[in-house]
């Protein structure tokens, strides 16, 4: 068994854990389980999972708190799988460090696709100098972007925005998180400001900016950088 194949399920519902175990095992993953938050924290340090599936409605500690505790040291992807579907709950989880959020009931095919994406683009190493996504080549050191070999002129703000999205490819970033990281805390409520810059960036890097495949909108939440 390889460490990269291990997925930890932290969920108090036995039927959900069994369904996930069957689904993951059938797709060449190894499932480990925890039925509450405290067990989950211990299991995360014991099994060193490549990815964690975390429920928010745990019987001992709220899942948001478990997420925060995990993010103190765990750097690999975390997908929230929860019955809670309120927008503020989803945004809070993503701001607390979740890579993705799926609501119950869920489709196994969609969950597996999200898992593959999270594992593929869970993080970009700090020393990576160039990111290549489809026809796009982003030079993080030279601060240049090429599309199909042709140089694209970006403003410094547009490059900072693209840099942040590309480094977090496959991860949902909230409006507030992006605004804070690119513009600073005083801009965290300026979502319309962000939309303007996203629109400008799409016109420059997308094949068809009206049908974006790189910068994908997560309605009411934020944006995800795709595969192109």
Characterization of this structure:
- This protein is an alpha/beta fold and 228 residues long.
- The protein has helices spanning 14-26, 37-47, 63-70, 87-95, 108-120, 156-167, 175-182, 191-205; strands at 6-10, 30-34, 51-54, 78-82, 100-103, 130-133, 136-139, 144-147, 150-152, 172-174, 215-218, 222-225.
- The strands form three sheets. The chain has a five-stranded parallel sheet with strand order 2-1-3-4-5, with helices on both faces. A four-stranded antiparallel sheet has the order 6-7-8-9, covered by helices on one side. It has a three-stranded antiparallel sheet with strand order 10-12-11.
- Strand 7 and strand 8 (144-147) form a beta hairpin.
- Helix 2 (37-47) packs parallel to helix 3 and helix 6 packs across helix 8 (191-205).
- The protein is globular, with a radius of gyration of 18 Å.
- The model has no long low-confidence stretch (mean pLDDT 90).
